[in-house]
Specification:
By secondary structure, the protein is α+β, with helices and mostly antiparallel strands. The chain folds into two domains: 301 residues, Alpha/Beta hydrolase fold, catalytic domain (Rossmann fold), CATH 3.40.50.1820; 188 residues, Sandwich (Jelly Rolls), CATH 2.60.120.260. Helices cover 17% and strands 26% of the residues. The protein has eleven helices and 28 strands. The strands form five sheets. The chain has an eleven-stranded mixed β-sheet with strand order 7-3-4-6-5-8-9-12-13-14-15, with helices on both faces. Strands 16, 17, 18, 19, 21, 22, 23, 24, 26, 27 and 28 form an eleven-stranded mixed β-sheet that branches. Strands 1-2 form a two-stranded antiparallel sheet. A hairpin with a 2-residue loop joins strand 10 and strand 11. Helix 6 runs antiparallel to helix 8. The two termini are 33 Å apart.
């Protein structure tokens, strides 16, 4: 019950800070079962296109950028009619795309290979349909919300479609320019019609809820960190909370994924901020007035070291989460390998406002289904119309299982989750190893060696298969069959005592696998590390060939139940074909199992593992 009292208190404090116009239920509102009902005709809606003046000049032409917005609102808002709240979706994907080409990821050796210890030195994008916004007037959001008394605004990001400026991909210019729409709705910014005449938003309460999927869901996160008055709630779906975590991982250049896991090559492999900017801006704009932006992105994103840097920190909203004043309804797929699960988990952990979490078993995008749609309706109705529908009294977290059923929890990770340290053990240098929770009896402590397959396609469809057979190209460590189901909830991590024996750079990948007695293996989650970033994502430290180091890194968060009778497996490889840079085969690595450890977030802690 504690979480409910905290949620109610936070909601009360939030409401006290909001304008009165956003609080009172209008007399015309019709509510049934806690959800507003359609009472207005979409056929009578007022549709208009305006240009909103921002406070930024991203194309450096000496003029403030203006962004184009499309509005649909009930006809009853005309003149001295009713005032309504706004559902706002902003997007860089509304047209005019460029022919952007991805960077190459195939190298003879890793790009950071030249970064060696002094003792070793000599002589001193294809189409982004999966990310594109699908809603566009007159359809989508306005079909659902305008008849129920909302206005809907679809905006076009700076440097895209009909807006001025240049795409800056995730920085403060993008946040401030998007915020301008909310400022205009609350009388703090200017907008103009096609004739250049100023237009006031005299039809709105000023209460705004932002939503969107992927990049369109990332923009609400960005704008919320500005603390803009009038933004009462956001519903970010498959949204980025740190662009470093989108394009990098622990010092390694790592791609977002564009396809269903295991379906083939990754069309986004080699994409980066400059590729995305080119795509959203279009060829003409990126070759002309926005060429300077493309050059800056290409130079500062650093595809050699993969280090965190001021460039990425300017695109990190986690450090600004304390400024968020809007409530947040986080939605994410547990099998989303485009915007990976670290994006939602890190954001959720840092939020200190009323919040709700919906995790579905799918990939990139919303879960679909009327149950989810109604939950979003109830959330928006509560925060924008002040409907008392009890949504804050419900458990915060809702998690879908592979069979489609949902389970509810007071919070996430699931209360009662504790980190369980699991050791790695091996009987000899070549046989598959084991996962143990107790120190094995005295005996040999062998080292185990494997050779990277490089760019060959075998991460998912070969290297996690047949875990009981030795492999020259990966190491596998398995638990005994579980006596009872084990619920993992949170972020696994691994510490590998290892060496790179014939290179000065290497990928390091850990894959957590569910091995059933009669089913194909299921990849639960995975994580990556640049061995030169063993001291942190922002620090490249060259390695010595053959020297042992502790390589500690996190895997992507998950919520997964391993059934009774199954085994938990850790598979250690080097190059991850669909995600990392891909050198030629031949990098040799050695792991010291008895000095390595897997950490699992287990509901019930280590005792619940049963081994």
């Amino acid at each position: 019950m504690r979480f409910r009292r905290v949620g109610v208190l936070a909601a009360a404090l939030f409401a006290a800070a909001c304008p009165a116009s956003a609080q009172a239920d209008p007399s015309w509102l019709v509510v049934k079962d806690g959800v507003t009902q359609p009472i207005f005709s979409l056929d009578d809606a007022i549709v208009e296109t305006l240009m909103v003046e921002t406070a930024v000049d991203s194309d450096q032409d000496g003029l403030r950028d203006r962004i184009r917005i499309h509005i649909s609102r009930p006809g009853e808002t005309a003149g001295d009619g009713i005032d309504v709240p706004v559902v706002f979706e902003h997007s860089p994907y509304r047209g005019g795309f460029g022919n952007a080409m991805n960077h190459s990821v195939d190298f003879d050796v890793m790009p950071q290979e030249f970064l060696r210890p002094r003792s070793a030195q000599r002589g001193g994008t294809p189409a982004r349909a999966a990310l594109a916004a699908r809603a566009d007037l007159p359809g989508g959001l306005d079909n659902r919300y305008v008849p129920r008394g909302y206005a809907v605004i679809l905006g076009e990001g700076i440097g895209s479609a009909g807006s001025d400026g240049c795409p800056t991909i995730g920085d403060s210019d993008e946040a401030i320019s998007t915020r301008a729409v909310i400022d205009w709705l609350n009388g703090r910014a200017r907008a103009f019609d096609a004739t250049g005449a100023p237009v006031r938003a005299d039809w709105t309460t000023g209460a705004v809820g932002m939503t969107g999927v992927s990049y369109d869901g990332t923009l609400p996160n960005m704008v919320a960190t500005t603390g803009v008055p009038g933004l009462r709630t956001i519903v970010p779906v498959s949204a980025i909370s740190s662009w470093y975590d989108y394009y990098r991982a622990n010092g390694l250049v790592v791609a977002p994924h564009s396809e269903t896991q295991g379906a083939g090559d990754n069309a986004y492999l080699g994409e980066d901020t400059d590729v995305l900017a080119h795509f959203t801006a279009g060829d003409e704009r990126i070759a002309g007035r926005c060429a300077h932006v493309l050059q800056r992105l290409a130079e500062q994103q650093d595809r050699t070291t993969g280090d965190d840097s001021p460039f990425w920190r300017a695109r990190d909203y986690l450090r600004l989460a304390g400024r968020v004043r809007a409530s947040v309804f986080v939605v994410h797929g547990l099998n989303d390998w485009n915007v990976k699960t670290k994006a939602f988990a890190a954001w959720w952990d840092r939020l200190r406002v009323p919040r709700k979490l919906w995790l579905h078993d799918g990939g990139h995008g919303p879960p679909g289904g009327e149950e989810y749609a109604v939950a979003v309706d109830r959330w928006l109705d509560h925060w924008l119309f002040d409907v008392e529908n009890g949504i804050l009294d419900e458990p915060r977290a809702r998690v879908q299982r592979p069979d489609g059923a949902y389970e509810e929890y007071a919070d996430w990770p699931v209360p009662g989750t504790r980190d369980a340290g699991v050791g790695l053990a091996a009987a000899d240098a070549t046989s598959p190893g084991t996962l143990v929770t107790r120190r094995p009896p005295r005996g040999p402590r062998p080292r185990q060696r494997f050779v990277d397959r490089g760019r060959e396609l075998d991460t998912d469809d070969v290297l996690i298969q047949a875990p009981d057979a030795p492999s020259a190209n990966r190491l596998a460590y398995l638990s005994p069959a579980l006596p009872a189901a084990v619920h993992l909830s949170g972020t696994p991590a691994v510490t590998l005592r290892a060496s790179v024996d014939n290179r000065y750079a290497a990928n390091l990948t850990a894959v957590l696998v569910d091995y059933g007695p009669a089913e194909p293996p299921v990849m639960i989650t995975r994580g990556w590390l640049d061995v030169q970033n063993r001291s942190g994502a922002g620090r490249t430290t060259p390695i010595q060939q053959g020297r042992e180091y502790d390589f500690a890194f996190d895997l992507q968060p998950d919520d997964y139940v391993v059934p009774a009778g199954h085994r938990i497996g850790l598979v250690v490889i080097s190059t991850d074909h669909d995600y990392t840079m891909r050198p030629l085969p031949g990098t040799e690595l050695t792991v010291f199992p008895d000095r390595s450890e897997l950490t699992l977030p287990v509901v019930g802690g280590r005792r619940a593992l049963g081994f």
